[in-house]
Every structure is written in C-alpha cells, then in structure tokens.
Amino acid sequence: MAENSGIDPQRIISHEFPQTTFTYTERDAALYALGVGACSKDAVDDKELKYVYHQDGQQAIEVLPTFSTLFSFGLQSQIAQIPGLQFDQRLLLHGQQYIEIYKPLPSHGCLLNKMSVTGLHDKGKAAILEMEILSYEKESSELLCMNRMAIYLRGAGGFSKSSQPYSFIKYPSSQNLAYQIPKTKPFAVFEECTQPSQALLYRLSGDYNPLHSDPMVAEIAGFSRPILHGLCSLGFAVRAIIKCICRGDQNMIKNISGKFLLHVYPGETLITEMWLDGLRVLYQVNVRERNKTVLSGAVSLTHLSSSL
What we know:
Layout: H1 9-13, E1 20-24, H2 26-35, H3 75-80, E2 92-101, E3 109-122, E4 126-137, E5 143-154, E6 167-169, E7 188-193, H4 198-202, H5 215-220, H6 230-244, E8 253-260, E9 269-277, E10 280-287, E11 292-301
C-alpha cells in the first residue's frame, strides 16, 4: 500500500497547464550574460563582447543558449498548483536541467510556453518530478527550444501502490543522455572566479529566491551565507565550453545537460574540466577553495571546430 496518500500519480501526469507568454528585450539578454560572467575577466573579450554590445556593426547582440533557462522562471508556482501533488515547498530541490536548442535565440522576442509533466518517479523518501517547457516564437510559431527540469521533492515519496516503485516517463529514450566523467586528463580546463556579488547580479534576471541574497534565509537553510543559483553555475560552465571547445561560436551547441551536485558560494573559483567524446563535451565543475565537484553534465555539438 502507498505510504503517501498526498500523491495521486494519474492526476499529476494528466494535468494540463495553461499556456503562458514570456517577453524579453535585448537588455534582458545582456544582463543575463553579465550575470553568468561574460566579459568579467576582460571587458573587451573578442569572444564575449557580442553578448552585451553591437560590435563590428552587428545589428543585434547575440544570445547565450543558457539564456533559455529563464523561460521556465515561475515554474515553482505552477508546480504548487498541480492537483494530486502535495509537498513541502521548502524541501524542493532543482536536481537536473536539460536543454535542446532548435534555432539561435533572438536578441528579443515574445514567446509562447507550453508546459507539461514528462516524468514522475517514486524514490522512497522523495519523489522526482520532471517538467518540460517548449518555447515557441509567438509570431511565427517556430519552436525555439525545450527545457526539462528534474525537481526533487523531499518527503513526497512512498506513493507507489505496488512493490514496484512507480516510474513514468513521457519523452524519447534518446533524450535520456547518460554520461560518465572520464578518469583521464581533461582535453581543456578553464578557471574563472565568480564575484562576491555574482548572485545579486544574476537574480536581476528574475530568480529572486532569498536563499541567494538574504543571510538569514541562507542560515536557516544550513548555509554559512547566501549561495549562487545553480543555473548561474551552469551558465558559467557552458560559457567555458563555448570559449574553449566552440572557439566562441555559441550556435554550435545542440543540447545541454547539467546535474547539480553541490552549492557554490559567490566569490569562489570555478574550474571547468572538459573531455571530448565524439560530438559531445563531457564536463565537470569543481570549486577550488573547497576541492568539491558542484556540477557535471554533457553538451552535444552540431560539429567540431576545425581549429581544435
């Protein structure tokens, strides 16, 4: 018998969300780029100035692929309204992120977002909820990108009605991109310091969770001070891959996966290690000051740069 009567799997996976719109400007894209460290080492970086400035006569700034993660902001309030799903919002953790980019993101636009539940798993003491958001250009109806998030709901497990733990997936197995970080020497390593104010800058892109800004909230959550947003760390890692492997061409990126392993404190140094695996880049991010791995994942490319 199920131990958690607050979870009704069938109601959860069949829930239909209302479509939402997301409008952004060139300023939003530039602010995001600065929030994930673009041009922080060199204000005239020839591979990154294009994200914040119209250099060399370009008509619009270019946009980092991880900017698409902003399209899912507000997800937590949507999850809280799913019928058949009872959980303590204070125990919610963002565990993984998967992104597919179908065409270069425009510097500004109005998007139509379609959200759905694409996975639900009973892990005993916790439940894992997988949410997918498809983002379309509203005017042309062209599909721009997809974001899928694995959300860990601590304390919400134990709802299976048989001895076999409940598990539901509604996406192709080809998108379940398993990877293993090699033990060999990395192909490339990129080291970069985050700023002490990094979380305060990144939050201006829309994630105002006080865990990242309020010392008292951070202390209650068990941290010595406010922590960096996980998606900000992912932005730093993908920037490193664009610089080192893609030679500055962000449009080479086809999809991105990231698993959040541990928190980062603003001001810490991120070391991104990269390995080539065909057209994939396997990566992991370590914090120098604590010698801890905080993020790992894989990035698929359309092709490899001829200058590698």
